[in-house]
Amino acid sequence: MERSYLSADQVAFFNANGYLIVENIITPEEVEHYKSIYNDFLSEKIDVGANRSDLGDGLGSSKTKENITQIMWPSDFVEELVHMPYHQRALAISRELIGEDSEMDFDMLINKAPYSNTITPWHQDEAYWLNVPDKRAASCWLALDEATLDNGCMWFVPGSNLKEVRPHRFAGKEGGALTCDATEDEGVYIELKPGSCTFHQGRTLHYSRGNSTGTNRRAFILNFRPAEMIRYERERGFDHGKNNAGDRKVKNDDFKS
To answer: Which CATH class is domain 8-255?
Structure first.
């Protein structure tokens, strides 16, 4: 019998609020192993080519280095990642949250370097995605460093998952991050210790402040949705930036301002 990670109350909280905290999805020893792999991506020891981009292009002050480093599909370059504890446990939890037909749609790394001070603007992930018939989705945001207010922990707007997607636009340079109108007054912030994570839905409003500290804020994100919807996306040529991480658009005209 497959292990259950969540209680009925946790699943109900996720459905009502659009997010959920899961403590210690990986152990401290596993955190260190993931950090080592992550650093190989950041240092370009693992060269990902066009799968790397600046999510903060046009938002931060730096013109010579990445404001927010985004690396799409790390598991394409380190294939054993999908068999390691984080991917496997997060997949099991996603099936408890959105259904047994859940599979990994994509993975990505988002790092806020020391003193980069660049926000990830308010948005809903669904604005980046195709308008698929089945909207079930769960994104897992794993902290590999302590995630705090000062270095860019996640904020969520509880209950926004139950409402419509707000109109989105480019926050800075076209092809950079999308944003919509929202404020911290609507949200709650979630500080995490290394090895803990949050899950959130595709319509859950979220954002993070910039990193004003002297250390990295490394996050490893996995997204899950029904296998049939992954096939639906791929049949229409949508692969979440595989080989073109900078190709960001409002994917559904209904979500444009």
So the answer is: mainly beta
Domain borders along the chain are 8-255
Total-model pTM: 0.93
State in Å, rounded, how far the first CA of the chain is from the last one: 48
Distances (CA, A) of 193 to 26, 43, 143, 196, 215: 11, 24, 7, 6, 14
Sheet holding 138-143, edge to edge: 19-22, 197-200, 138-143, 217-226, 102-112, 69-72, 52-54
Read off the pLDDT of residues 128-154 as tens digits, 9 standing for 90 and up.
999 999 999 999 999 999 999 999 999
